[in-house]
Amino acid sequence: MPSPPVFMHPMFTCKSIAVVIPVFAFAITLGSSLAAAQSTSAAKSDAGDAGARTYKTYCIACHQENGQGVGGAFPPLAGHAPDLLAWAGGRTHLIRVALFGLEGTINVNGTNFTGAMPAWDRLDDKSIAAVLNHVLTAWDNKPRLPAGFKPLAADEVAAVRAESLDAKRVFALRQQIAPAPAAAANNAAPIALSFTEAQAAQGKAAYQHNCMDCHGTTLDNGEFGGAPLRGAYFRNHWGNGSVASLYAYLKTKMPPDRPGALSDKVYADLLAFLLHSNGYESGGRELPTDSQTLQSMSLKRD
Ligand code: HEC
Ligand code: HEC
To answer: Is 75 within the bounds of a domain?
Structure first.
């Protein structure tokens, strides 16, 4: 995705027209600058926006539109991604994170995050490269990139894919290259996961109403492309993270035509239903909706 030629081209056109027809130079330069501005942004969005689109689909629920993440739950990528790239081995690390996920306590600019990022290995090499290039250049990240930065390429992703790591292993390898963090405040103690039968039952009703068309009667037999919501697929995506990840995902992405349209309580009920359907034990305490508490509840089973 070489953007420099795209940038150069309209300026070139603009200049040569001005030189060739000096009489109308002003008018034409003005007109062609407008055209140039338009074609620049059109061309730029063709070139760069596969990455932006992939980000919107797969990353925004947690890392947010502005790349700031969510305090205590999802680390920022704005400001952070170029730092990762600057580590020895950082380029490979970024690709690993996107492909295989990341699980462990990381420190980003003094804040600890103990979460699990799901793997995105179902995205192809080109999409992984594009989304990482987007993350590296979006927001105010571009000026922080090392001079001579070369965008990640699909064949680099293919090479890392062959390592077939898992999220814990990616974390272990990260430990070897991450600079020691400044002594950081630690996260809250874990809180045991809990939801009630009544919540799961209400969640089931909300599911039938809002989700079943796409995700199916058994949560894995949807007709309109809804991903499986139970079994190994669910476990691989969510089973190592905190409840906050899944809650944030539901609330920011589902149902796809009106994300966030349901109340917090209904999202918590839906979450209880999904957990129930995946064999988690119900208990005496309701599943809460505040992200701080959800962040302290792990979906990991011993
Ligand atoms: C369900 C929530 C979620 C989604 C969706 C998600 N991430 Fe993450 N991401 C996390 C969490 C949580 C962490 C921190 C993991 C940890 O604490 O070990 C993280 C960390 C990262 C990091 C920092 C890694 C480091 O070593 O500091 C990068 C880069 C990243 N994610 C990129 C992406 C990209 C690109 C996408 C989309 C393809 C994406 N994430 C989608 C939750 C998510
Ligand atoms: C219009 C169809 C549609 C409806 C309605 C819908 N979903 Fe989805 N859902 C999808 C699709 C498609 C995906 C896969 C999205 C992706 O991979 O980015 C998905 C993904 C998910 C995932 C993540 C699965 C994974 O592990 O990757 C969860 C959880 C989820 N939906 C829950 C719900 C819940 C709960 C509702 C009801 C409030 C709902 N969905 C309504 C289509 C739908």
So the answer is: no
Q: Quick check: is 150 in a domain?
A: yes
Contact between 82 and 144 (Cβ < 8 Å): yes
Cα–Cα distance measured from residue 286 to residue 282, given in angstroms and rounded to the nearest whole number:
9
Q: Are residues 228 and 274 in the same domain?
A: yes
Residues 42 and 116 in one domain: no
Of ligand 1's atoms, which has the minimum distance to the CA of residue 237? Answer: 1
CATH, residue 86: 1.10.760.10
Any idea which ligand is nearest the CA of 113? 1
* Cα of 194 from ligand 2 centre, angstroms: 23
The ligand whose atoms approach the alpha carbon of 98 most closely is 1
Residue whose C-alpha is closest to residue 169's, from 132, 119, 123: 119
Q: Look up the domain containing 221 and give its range.
A: 197-295
Using CA atoms, how far residue 174 sits from 14, 89, 103, 115, 295, in Å, is 48, 9, 10, 14, 22
Categorize the per-residue pLDDT at 143 as very low, low, confident or very high, splitting at 50, 70 and 90: confident
Per-residue model confidence as pLDDT tens digits over 197-218: 999 999 999 999 999 999 999 9
Asked if the model's pLDDT at residue 41 lies above 90, the reply is no
Mean pLDDT is highest, among 37-46, 155-164, 225-234, for: 155-164
Query: Is 70 part of any domain?
Result: no
235 CA → ligand 2 middle, Å? 15
Atom 2 (ligand 1) nearest CA: 62
Count: domains in the chain: 3
| Coil, strand or helix at 106 | strand
- Domain assignment present for residue 148? The answer is yes
84 Cα: distance to centroid of ligand 1 (angstroms): 12
Contact 75 CB / ligand 1 (< 6 Å): yes
pLDDT of res. 44? 43
